[in-house]
Design brief:
11 helices, 42% helix, five-stranded mixed beta sheet, alpha/beta, 21% strand, six-stranded mixed beta sheet
């Protein structure tokens, strides 16, 4: 039998097929995701396109449809614009809790099989009413929780406090305590960088590609974010083009410092030390502090950047000078994507519960 896993996001879907030994035998990708379903208004678009991916695999790999076993999916495929909406579950979340909440749905039109959906997670209790006053405390993710489980499955230290940063269009951050996700922070980075580069006056300042990171320019970007705020800090990228001999690589690095420095500010605000007066201000904050404060004033927390070498260099450059409470490290789990490792971990735990 062959088991199939779909990692389906906002704009892209990746499919992985495994044999009965758990070996990857086929993978494919298609530019289709929940955004396409939302824009088209076609509820059948995603199941039809994903089924088509699997059909092509069967033809190319000479796999009989009868030999297709379990089908698993995670990511935006569980959102309102996915195949079926699966409610977020609330932190703290560990591998066992995620497996307990796997949602099984029979898709009768295209796959004509049961599909196992891994739910997303959020940072406020289901019974908590969200208002304008506390909406800043809620964060949510769909797909990254599976990646984090994959990271933890190949992580040697299961005890202790850690922060995992997953850079991307929307950079997601998880605070992990003794193998359990206790809080998350959701931010926009890559998507914002792309918009600034293509849709604003900064486009000419950011033309071209870059391979390396200029760490001094990263630090300058963060310093200007601190001193002038976001609006002025990003505009300075234009001044770098007009009035200095800066290179495209330096200007890109500068903007990375502004954008990712904002992520570090959000992490520090959400996961850092809070005074007693702060924690007593609201019951919501009391609950948050009980679960989510990872450090004492004099502790240093290991922060793992689960991305490229450049992304590690960006966060490390800022943290060294401005966030000494974080020891920045790079996470590499080998040849398989974090999402695939997570699917393997969740499905194995799910089987234990049956």
């Amino acid at each position: 039998m062959y088991n199939v896993y779909f990692d389906s996001g906002t704009t892209n879907t990746r499919m992985y097929v495994f044999n009965d030994k758990g070996e990857l035998v086929f993978k494919s990708e298609k530019t289709v995701g929940s955004k396409d379903a939302a824009l088209s208004g076609d509820r059948d678009l995603l199941p039809r396109e994903l089924h088509h991916l699997l059909e092509n695999c069967c033809v190319e790999s000479k796999i009989d449809w009868k030999d297709v076993g379990e089908i698993w999916m995670s990511g935006m495929i569980t959102s309102p614009n996915g195949i079926v909406e699966v409610p977020h579950i609330t932190v703290p979340v560990d591998l066992h809790k995620l497996a307990q909440n796997v949602f099984v749905f029979y898709e009768k039109k295209f796959f004509k099989k049961e599909i196992h959906f891994i739910p997303g997670i959020k940072s406020l209790p289901a019974e908590c009413k969200i208002t304008a006053e506390n909406v800043d405390k809620i964060n949510n993710m769909r797909g990254e929780e599976t990646e984090i489980c994959g990271i933890m499955s190949c992580f040697s230290a299961s005890k202790g406090n850690f922060i995992f940063v997953l850079p991307g269009s929307h950079t997601q951050v998880a605070a992990v305590k003794n193998g359990s996700i206790v809080n998350i922070v959701s931010t926009i980075t890559g998507e914002l960088f792309k918009a600034l580069k293509s849709q604003t006056i900064l486009a000419s300042s950011l033309e071209g590609e870059y391979e390396k990171i200029d760490t001094e320019m990263v630090r300058l970007g963060y310093r200007n974010l601190q001193n002038y705020g976001f609006n002025r800090a990003i505009y300075i990228a234009r001044a770098l083009l007009l009035f200095t001999d800066s290179t495209a690589e330096q200007r890109h690095s500068y903007l990375e410092g502004v954008l990712n420095g904002g992520v570090l500010q959000a992490i520090s605000a959400a996961f850092g030390f809070k005074s007693k007066s702060d924690t007593d201000s609201k019951n919501l904050n009391k609950a948050e502090d009980k679960n989510c404060n990872l450090k004492k004033v004099d502790e240093q927390i290991d922060m793992y950047i689960c991305g490229s070498e450049n992304q590690f260099q960006i966060y490390n450059a800022i943290a060294q000078d401005f966030f000494p409470e974080y020891s920045v490290k790079q996470m590499d789990c080998g040849s398989l994507p974090f999402s695939v490792l997570g699917y393997k971990a969740v499905s194995a735990e799910y089987k234990k519960l049956r």
